Amino acid sequence: MLSGLLIVLLPLVLGYLVPVRHAGLLALINQAVNASVYLILLLMGVSLAALDDLGSQLSYMGSQALMLFTVIAVCNLAALAWLSRRSRLRAEGSPIVKDAPTSKLAAMLGSLALVGVVILGVLVGLALDWLGLERLHGVAEPLAEWVLYVLLALIGCQLRNSGMSLKQILLNRHGLVIAVTVVASSLIAGLIAAPLLSLSWNEGLAMAAGFGWYSLSGILIGDQLGPVLGGVAFFNDLARELLAFILIPLTIHRATPLAIGYGGATSMDFTLPVIQQHGGVACVPIAVVSGFILSLLAPPLILLFLSL
């Protein structure tokens, strides 16, 4: 299992070692990451279609995802509410920042588009069965694994070239404390949820270690534990992001650490515009640092727990 961990971590590390300074190349890398995510989620849907008794499997996946999401949400919100009471961090300035990068609706639609890709994959898989091409189901899993290696290398490169230095991260105390609170409460939730989901303790920890990065958590879990649990991880972290879009405007002025922290890894990208719109520009560096730390920790933690 440890050798498998090293094989999957290797492209992430190699990608992190590559400095990229050309803006056009960085844009191409970002596009390749998005394309890789869509392709892997499509292949995940094809693999789901190959399961026996698909209807009951999808029902099981939904109930498991709901239970995992509920446990993690309760633990995260309780810990972040406690931190908000003890912290002096408060959103200041205008509650709405003009010319924010995107709207809340656009961001939510982008998230839901990924669900559509998984559904499309299931339909493609069912079409293969109808056409008598069931043997092509066997191609989906190894192809997804190779695309995963490419994706991890590209993500490593993205993290290296995100503009965040180690000094900037460690000196931003608020972002660091928020990230640590999210990690600790999520892992506690994973241990609580494991027996409820009939998982081993390390699998429960892995399922909780996505920190809202739904595309990556679903892919990594699916590669190691199969498409059903990969789907559970995906929908759990997707639900987290959708709830964050609702919570941020409601809580950012009364419980700023909660609003920033509950976005998890997405606080540095998808939920960042909503944080900026409702909390002001002062919240942006804190959200970016918190999201960056969680994004950096998610892949190795998931793979580490799955290797135990």
What does this structure look like?
With 308 residues, the protein is an all-alpha fold. Helices cover 78% and strands 0% of the residues. It is built from 13 helices and no strands. Helix 3 (54-86) packs antiparallel against helix 11 (256-262), helix 9 runs antiparallel to helix 10 (227-251) and helix 9 runs parallel beside helix 13. It starts with a helix and ends with a helix. Residues 94-102 have low confidence and may be disordered.
Sketch the topology as an H/E string, one letter per element: HHHHHHHHHHHHH
Global mean pLDDT: 82
* DSSP E strands, number: 0
Radius of gyration computed on alpha carbons: 19 Å
Distance between the termini: 7 Å
Number of helices: 13
Main sheet record: none
Low-confidence stretches: 94-102
Share of residues in strands? under 5%
Oligomer: single chain
Query: Based on CA inertia axes, which overall geometry fits?
Result: globular
Q: Helix amount, in percent?
A: over 70%
Structural class: mainly alpha
